[in-house]
Amino acid sequence: MMSVPRYGENTLSDLLPAVLGAVTGNDIAPSLDLAGVRRVCVLLIDGLGAQQLAARAEHAPMLSSMSGETWTSTFPSTTATSLASLGTGRPPGQHGIVGYLTAVEGYDRPMNPLHWRLHGQAGGRSGKDGQAGGRSGKDGQAGGRSGKVSSDLLSTLVPEEFQPHPTVFERASAAGIAVTRVAPSYQRESGLTRAVLRGGDFAASVSAGDLVARTLSALNRGDRSVVYSYWSELDLTGHVRGPSSDAWSHELRQVDSMVEAVVSRLPPDAALVVTADHGMVDVEERVDVDTTPALSLDVTMIAGEPRARHVFARPGAAADVAQRWRETLGTDYLVVDRDEAIGREWFGPVRPAVARTIGDVLALARGSGAVVRSGAEPNQSALLGHHGSLTDAETRVPLLIARS
């Protein structure tokens, strides 16, 4: 089943504004049990889909005991887009990060926002699914339309100019709230952080235990506090071993232990909110663009990711490209053009400049398939777990709350 996010109603873009309203006392979201709190930590567990958690509840007794509900991620259901909506409080059509690989006007290759460099460009840490810079990597990808290529995208595509609106963290700091972001050190000054997660202080964490300690210390700062803590290992495990693997279940136990440690030490006026950026599916069938000529004909660039591709066509060929992709992929994929995707409000309200970075054609997996690129993206193509599409398994995320 497909779930289109209803921006403004229980999506990740609504979460931090609601938290800020609760901590300031200006606006209490009725669906969140945050009345009377002065300190809130939002702990984002990368890759913790609501369906996956429900299926492995016995491995997560703490999480399963917390009150809460199910919210939706963004479209696409991918880390860069979801974190951008979380940090800015805006839907993708407003903040402009519309995929794992996002087209940028004036460049001949898509940008990887998690590394803030052009896809296929050397340099920086290579990331798994690239949690703003993970470990073993998804790939670079060459090709595309003509344009400039920069070896230092941070200087030519300045993150604070790419997304100039104040983040929720900046708004909270301006309101006198102690804001702390707890995450691995490589995220401190990353392009994605500077664009959509900037504001307040940064506390680098080096392990699960360190994240717990730093989170609790940050919660006790000042008269009022907002903490954002980020954990990536569950997502990494899901990509490499699959979200149905024993390894994923064991990693979930580690996450549950970490959550229990924070909950047991919450200050009296504090709450912990646990959520995720997306879920994940085990991929069973792959269609390879690099060995399927019909999928390359009249195509100038491919962005997005295997379960949610943005396809750019040469001028005048978009309709033909869309028809070839429909015929080749069949009913296991939903193939639409840009106008239809915008009209269906997959990205929320879309600014004209952002609309031009959405593919002429979008191809979404409905089942367990993926559109891979074995030549351009060999590592990513071999991963067992993927996300990005609009299926419930990918878009539905938990929203769990514990009070002291």
From TrEMBL:
Q: Identify the stretch(es) annotated as Disordered.
A: 112-150
Name the residue ranges with Gly residues bias: 121-146
Pfam families assigned to the protein according to its UniProt record, in alphabetical order: Phosphodiest (PF01663)
SUPFAM superfamilies given in the database record: Alkaline phosphatase-like
Q: Which domain of life is it from?
A: Bacteria
InterPro entries this protein is in? Alkaline_phosphatase_core_sf (IPR017850), Phosphodiest/P_Trfase (IPR002591)
PANTHER family in alphabetical order: BIS(5'-ADENOSYL)-TRIPHOSPHATASE, ECTONUCLEOTIDE PYROPHOSPHATASE/PHOSPHODIESTERASE
Instruction: Please report the name of this protein according to its UniProt entry.
Output: Alkaline phosphatase family protein
Native organism: Rhodococcoides kroppenstedtii
Highest lineage ranks of the organism? Answer: Bacteria, Bacillati, Actinomycetota, Actinomycetes, Mycobacteriales
